[in-house]
Amino acid sequence: MLETEKIDPTAFEGLRSLPARSSLGQGVYERLKQAIIQGDFGPGSRVVESRLAGALGISRTPVREAIHKLEREGLLRQDPKRGFFVEGLGREDIEETFGIRSVLESYAARLAAIRHIEGELQPLETKLEDYQKRLDRGDLGALPQINTEFHDLLYGLSRSPRLVKMINDLRDHIYRYRVVILKVKDMAELSHADHRLMLMAMKQRDADRVERLVKDHLLRGQDIVLKEFDMERNSGIEGLRD
Questions:
Q1: Residues near 80 by beta carbon (within 8 Å), at least 6 away in sequence
Q2: 20 to 30 A Cα–Cα from 3, which one of 106, 118, 169, 201?
Q3: 113 vs 26, higher pLDDT
Q4: CA distance 39 to 23
Q5: Is residue 104 located within the same domain as residue 194?
Q6: pTM higher than the cut 0.85
């Protein structure tokens, strides 16, 4: 089990430049949240209020506020005897999240294939080019963000604000899964190939094919995350916990 005091000090770099006074609590919350969903604080990492406040050079009050807010959002859990820990990725959580995603995101892609207008696919092409450049350089750490931006652009073309909001409600959990999937180059390449096929079907306005591609893409992602979950559990490493 990891603890924040054992994590590489560079994990705190993004937390150091925080706003002052009334917005300090929100600043701590935003930066700590990003550290969790980007994997700087992995599943099972212990978050110690006093040590985090000391590392940041601030009082414990804004840190406490941030921790409790993240607990309400399901990113942290409290052990009555040992304090707060980054919530793991349970099997039921993984299956439920990907099940919901496969319905919402495939439908959003279907609408996008029908409703997009001329010129609106170029930003998607640009994202894929950027992704390929990072992939070629072996910069796997940059891929989850580019991947997220691609999906955001795609679903935005559905012109369904309510549907996009429903997808975004899962955004933080989705990002954590993307980090797991894209950390392996073979999986990152396969994801990129899927996106290329999606864009091609979008250009052809083949709504049925886009919908099917997105659903298959997500279910493949679920299989990868579940495989990682099983490997971690079977090896006895705490992190992706049941």
A1: none
A2: 169
A3: 113
A4: 24
A5: yes
A6: no
